[in-house]
Design brief:
Keywords: ATP-binding, Nucleotide-binding, Phosphoprotein. The chain is extended, with a radius of gyration of 36 Å. A hairpin with a 4-residue loop joins strand 3 and strand 4. It is α+β, with helices and mostly antiparallel strands. The protein starts with a strand and ends with a helix. The strands form 6 sheets. It has a 5-stranded antiparallel beta sheet with strand order 4-3-7-6-5, sandwiched between helices. Strands 9-8-12-11-10 form a 5-stranded antiparallel beta sheet, sandwiched between helices. The relative contact order is 0.05. It folds into 4 domains: 198 residues, PAS domain (Beta-Lactamase), CATH 3.30.450.20; 94 residues, Beta-Lactamase (2-Layer Sandwich), CATH 3.30.450; 243 residues, Heat Shock Protein 90; 118 residues, Response regulator (Rossmann fold, 3-Layer(aba) Sandwich). The chain contains 23 helices and 24 strands.
Length: 690
C-alpha cells in the first residue's frame, strides 16, 4: 500500500528492503541505546518514539562508518559505536545536545546543521574538520555529512551526521565518500517515502475519517490486533475502542477538528479474539483525515499493574504486621506463661513426690504449645510473600483457623460474632490473600468503631439467577457470600464511591495508607468474585464478597500429628540440626521409637558422616544451618552421592522457599517447626514404609 498526499492508500509496485537488525540485541551499542533513560531527554521514553525516528536509528546502527541521528528541537544525539570513539574517551554521548557535544567545533559545523534542518543535504570535505580526541595526541581530520531526516508528516525533524576520516589514501577516501553518500541518499529516500514507514513500522498506524470511520490501517496494526482488512473496512473505530476510553477519544478528535493540539493518549483497542490491548497514540489531522500512530504498551501496563499490586500487598502487609505486633507479643507471652507455669508446678510436684496432678500440668502445657504452634504457623503464612496459589477451601474451617489473628486485629475491646452457614460450598482462593483480606477488614472495623464495638462475620451460600450487579458483572451461578459488618461510624456515599481507590483513606494523617480495601478489591477480583460496600453514616459498614463455588474436592483437614504406627526396627537416621536442646530431644525420642540415630550440628559434619558412616535409611535436616551451607545444599550434595536417598526437611522459618523440583522428588517431605515429637517419628516411619 502507498499513501498519496491526502493519506489515501493505493496499490504500489513490489519493493524489497533489507531491514536493520534489532538494535537491542545486535550489538552492545544497541543494548546501551535500549537501556538508556530517554525519558530524561526531549525525545521521551523509547517506546513512545515515532516510527520515523526508530527506523532512522535502526539504519544508523548498521552503518559501516561513524554516524549519529540528531533529532528534535534540542538536537538530541543517538549514535552508533564507531561515533562514540571519535572523541577518544570512548564515552557515550547518548541524549546529549549536538551543539554541546561539538561545542569546540560548532563554528565550522553550525551553518551546515542549519542547512540540514532546512532540508538540504551537505557533504563537507574541503577543508576537512580537525577533531581533537581528548587524551589522544593524534587528532582526526574528517569529512562530514549532514542529511535531513523527515518525520511522518514530511517535515524535517532531524538529520543524519556522518563522519569519514580523510587520512586514508585518496582511493579509500573516495570509496568511503561514495558509500556515505549512497547510505545518506538511501536513508533520505526511505524516510521521505511514507509508504516505507507505513508498511515497515513496528508501530500500529491507522487513518480515521471525521466520522470516526476506519479508513486504512498498516500491517503492524492488523498483526497486533488480529483483524483482517475485510472485517474492519469502514468500521466505526468506536466499536473497537474500550467503552471506558471512548469519551476520551471523542474529546481528542474534537480538539483536532477544531485545530487544537491534542496530547498523546493511552487507550485500549479490541483484539479480534475479544481481549483488549493498550496503545499510546499520537496523531495529526490534515483537515480531512486523521493519521494516528500507536505504540503497543500492553506489556508495559501489565508489568506496571503487577508491580503496583505487589507494592499494595507488601505495603499493606507491613502496616498490618505493625498493628498486630503488640497483640501477638501479648498472646505469645500468655502462652509462654502457661507453659512455664505448668512446667514449674510439674517440677515442684515431682520434687515433693506428689504425682496426683502431673497429667493435668502436662496437658495444660501441651495445650498452650499447640495454640502457640497454630499461631506461629498462621503468622508465617500471613507474612510470606508467595505468588497467588488458588486451591479449594472450606471457608468456615479457614475462618476458625485464623480466629486468633482476627481477634488480634480487632483488639481486646472489640466483640467478634459469627453467623456461619452450616454447610458452605467450597471456593477456590489463595489462602494467604484470603486471610490478609479478612485481617484488613477487621482492622478497618476496629478503626471505624474507635476500638470499642462489634463485628459480625457471616457466610452463606448464594445462587444467582441473573447477572450481578449488572450485565457486566458476575454471571448466574453458585457463589459463597462472606459479609463483614461493624457497628461503627459508617461512611458517606462519597466515601463509599472512593473506598476501593488506592491511597484513599478517611483515617487521620499518619494513621492509614489507604491500601487495605484496594487490596481486598484486587484479591476478590482475581479470584473471579465481586466485592461491594454498604454503609450509612452513624449506622456502621458492611463489606460483602462473593466467591464462585468450586466443585473440586476440599483436602481433608490436616491432623495435628499422624496416628501412631509400629516402632522402628533399627533404621539408621542422620539427624542434622544446629539447635542443641531440640536436637537432643529429637534424638532421645527417635531412639525410644526404635531408630538408630547419628546426629550432627552442621552441614560439613553431616556430609562427612554420610560419606564415612553411611548408608542411612533417612536424613532429617534443618534448612537453616550455620556456616553458609544450608539444608537444601546438604540434600543436593547427598543426592549426588545417593540419588534415591530419602530426606525429611524441618524448618521454623526460611526466607528462601525450597525449590519445587526438590520437594517433588520421591522420598522428600517437609515439616514446619514447632511440631510434636510423636508427629516427627510417625512422619519418619511413614517415609520409610513408603
Amino acid at each position: 500500500m502507498r499513501l498519496v498526499a491526502n493519506g489515501t492508500p493505493r496499490e504500489a509496485e513490489p519493493q524489497v528492503m533489507l531491514l536493520a537488525p534489532n538494535p537491542a540485541s545486535a550489538d552492545p551499542m544497541g543494548e546501551r541505546i535500549a537501556q538508556f533513560d530517554w525519558g530524561r531527554t526531549s525525545l521521551g521514553p523509547l517506546p513512545r518514539w515515532p516510527a520515523s525516528l526508530r527506523i532512522a536509528v535502526d539504519m544508523m546502527q548498521v552503518s559501516p562508518f561513524p554516524c549519529a541521528v540528531v533529532w528534535g528541537a534540542d538536537l538530541s544525539v543517538v549514535h552508533n559505536d564507531a561515533y562514540r570513539m571519535l572523541r577518544g574517551d570512548g564515552q557515550d554521548a547518548l541524549g546529549q545536545a549536538f551543539d554541546v557535544l561539538w561545542n569546540d567545533a560548532w563554528q565550522g559545523m553550525g551553518p551546515w546543521v542549519f542547512k540540514a534542518l532546512e532540508g538540504r543535504s551537505s557533504f563537507v570535505e574541503d577543508p576537512p574538520l580537525r577533531i581533537e580526541r581528548g587524551n589522544v595526541n593524534d587528532p582526526l581530520w574528517c569529512a562530514l555529512g549532514y542529511s535531513p531526516i523527515r518525520d511522518e508528516q514530511g517535515g524535517v525533524a532531524g538529520f543524519l551526521h556522518t563522519v569519514i576520516e580523510t587520512k586514508a589514501s585518496v582511493e579509500a577516501h573516495h570509496h568511503w565518500r561514495e558509500q556515505a553518500t549512497a547510505f545518506e541518499k538511501q536513508l533520505e529516500r526511505y524516510m521521505a517515502d511514507r509508504d516505507q514507514i507505513w508498511r515497515l513500522s513496528r508501530d500500529a498506524m491507522m487513518i480515521v475519517t471525521r466520522e470516526l470511520t476506519l479508513h486504512a490501517a498498516n500491517p503492524a496494526w492488523h498483526r497486533i490486533l488480529g483483524w483482517s482488512e475485510a472485517l474492519v473496512q469502514n468500521m466505526s473505530i468506536l466499536e473497537l475502542i474500550h467503552p471506558a476510553d471512548r469519551a476520551e477519544v471523542q474529546v481528542a478528535v474534537s480538539s483536532f477538528v477544531q485545530g487544537q493540539e491534542a496530547e498523546q493518549i493511552d487507550i485500549r483497542l479490541r483484539h479480534q479474539d475479544g481481549h483488549y490491548r493498550w496503545f499510546s497514540w499520537s496523531a495529526t489531522f490534515d483537515g480531512n483525515l486523521l493519521t494516528a500512530v500507536g505504540r503497543d504498551i500492553t506489556a508495559d501496563r501489565e508489568e506496571a499493574t503487577r508491580q503496583s499490586e505487589a507494592l499494595l500487598r507488601n505495603s499493606e502487609r507491613l502496616e498490618v504486621v505493625g498493628q498486630l505486633a503488640g497483640g501477638m507479643a501479648h498472646e505469645m507471652n500468655n502462652l509462654l506463661s502457661g507453659i512455664g507455669g505448668s512446667l514449674e508446678l510439674l517440677q515442684r510436684r515431682l520434687l515433693q513426690g506428689r504425682l496426683e496432678r502431673i497429667e493435668t500440668y502436662v496437658e495444660l502445657a501441651r495445650d498452650s504449645v499447640q495454640r502457640a504452634m497454630n499461631l506461629t504457623h498462621r503468622l508465617l503464612a500471613f507474612s510470606s510473600n508467595q505468588p497467588l496459589d488458588a486451591r479449594p477451601l472450606n471457608v468456615n474451617r479457614q475462618l476458625s483457623l485464623i480466629e486468633p489473628l482476627l481477634q488480634q486485629a480487632l483488639g481486646a475491646e472489640m466483640s467478634l460474632q459469627w453467623e456461619l452457614d452450616v454447610t458452605p460450598w467450597a471456593v477456590s482462593v489463595d489462602v494467604t490473600q484470603f486471610e490478609n483480606a479478612l485481617i484488613n477488614l477487621c482492622a478497618n472495623a476496629r478503626e471505624a468503631c474507635l476500638e470499642r464495638g462489634s463485628v459480625w462475620i457471616r457466610t452463606v451460600n448464594e445462587r444467582l439467577a441473573t447477572h450481578f450487579p449488572d450485565e457486566n458483572g458476575l454471571p448466574p451461578g453458585d457463589y459463597v457470600a462472606l459479609h463483614v459488618e461493624d457497628d461503627g461510624h459508617g461512611m458517606s456515599a462519597a466515601e463509599v464511591a472512593k473506598a476501593f481507590e488506592p491511597f484513599f483513606t478517611t483515617k487521620p494523617l499518619g494513621r492509614g495508607s489507604g491500601l487495605g480495601l484496594p487490596m481486598v478489591y484486587g484479591f476478590v477480583g482475581q479470584s473471579g468474585g465481586y466485592v461491594w460496600i454498604e454503609s450509612t453514616q452513624g449506622q456502621g459498614t458492611k463489606v460483602s464478597m462473593l466467591f464462585p463455588r468450586s466443585l473440586a474436592p476440599v483436602p481433608e483437614e490436616p491432623l495435628v500429628c499422624l496416628p501412631s504406627v509400629n516402632r522402628a526396627q533399627g533404621q539408621r537416621v542422620l539427624l542434622i540440626d544446629d539447635e542443641l536442646n531440640l536436637r537432643a530431644l529429637m534424638r532421645e525420642f527417635l531412639i525410644e521409637r526404635g531408630f538408630a540415630i547419628c546426629d550432627v550440628q552442621d552441614a560439613n559434619s553431616a556430609l562427612d558422616r554420610f560419606r564415612h558412616d553411611g548408608p542411612f535409611d533417612l536424613v532429617i535436616t534443618d534448612i537453616g544451618l550455620p556456616g553458609g551451607f544450608s539444608g537444601r545444599q546438604v540434600a543436593k550434595a547427598i543426592r549426588m552421592i545417593v540419588p534415591s536417598q530419602k530426606i525429611l526437611f524441618i524448618t521454623g522459618y526460611t526466607d528462601q522457599p525450597i525449590e519445587a523440583q526438590l520437594l517433588d522428588q520421591p522420598g522428600t517431605a517437609l515439616m514446619l517447626k514447632p511440631f510434636a515429637l510423636e508427629h516427627l517419628a510417625n512422619q519418619a516411619l511413614h517415609m520409610l514404609d513408603g
